[in-house]
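Lecture notes, unit on protein representations.

Consider one protein chain, 166 amino acids long.
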Amino acid sequence: MTLLMLLFWLIAGGTLQVVVPAFRHMGQPAFPFLLGVVLYAAVNKKARYFVATALLAGVVEDSLSLAPLGCSVFAFLAAGGLAVLLREDFYADKARTVMGFGALCAATSTGAMALLLRLKGLVALSGGEIFWRMAGSAVLGAVLIPLLFGGMRGLERLLGTWEDRA
């Protein structure tokens, strides 16, 4: 049942990723819908679900963008790995901690993706531009991740599919 819920959220996140345009300000970062699904799996689910979710979300993200296949997988695994490391000290029911957590992980994902694309010679972003885009992603992550976490957890509890990560 957990796998079906995560697949549903990946489809919903991918759809929103296409429909909602990039944030015009602060380097034009995309809204982190798929990253939110990956972070939710990293914080609330077993490790095997997190890895599968990161791989699928990365393939979906790269399929919807001009990035080479696999780049978003790297970025999602980097941000999700950070989430797994921090999840023991993380209170998923507190809006402030989810905001800070979302901002940190969104900035990590954006920075990892930008650095990877820069190292491959696919983008010509300066360090300042990468930092500015990371800051924009952090703002979007701080706003969007708590809403996604609340909606995802609420639907799982409503449907009776909530499963602890133990």
